[in-house]
Amino acid sequence: WEAGQTLARKLMLTMVSDFQQNKPLKLNSKFVDGIRSILSDSSLDK
């Protein structure tokens, strides 16, 4: 859990920096796919 939160924070701060520099914003597709996989797997819900 903590590693995922750390990665999410890093990716969001990178996007904030890109926004401030008028760079195009890009989502990390591997991160999005990973989160999608976790959220769609009901066996992980306790």
Task: Spell out the blueprint of helices and strands.
Elements (H helix, E strand, L loop, with lengths): L1 H19 L8 H12 L6
Task: Please describe what this structure looks like.
The protein is mainly α and 46 residues long. It has one domain (2-44). It is built from 2 helices and no strands. It starts with a helix and ends in a 6-residue tail after the last helix.
Brief write-up:
The protein is mainly α and 46 residues long. It contains two helices and no strands. This is Peptidase M1 alanyl aminopeptidase C-terminal domain-containing protein.
Key structural traits:
46 residues, mainly alpha, elongated, 2 helices, 67% helix
Mean of residue pLDDT values: 94
User: What is the CA-atom radius of gyration, in angstroms?
Assistant: 13 Å
Number of strands: 0
Q: Identify the overall geometry.
A: elongated
- Uncertain parts: none
Q: Classify the beta-strand content into a percent band.
A: under 5%
Number of helices: 2
The separation of the N and C termini measures 14 Å
Q: What is the ordering of alpha helices and beta strands?
A: HH
- How many domains make up the 3D coordinates? 1
Q: Give the fraction of residues assigned to helices.
A: 55-70%
Biggest β-sheet description: none
Main structural class: mainly alpha
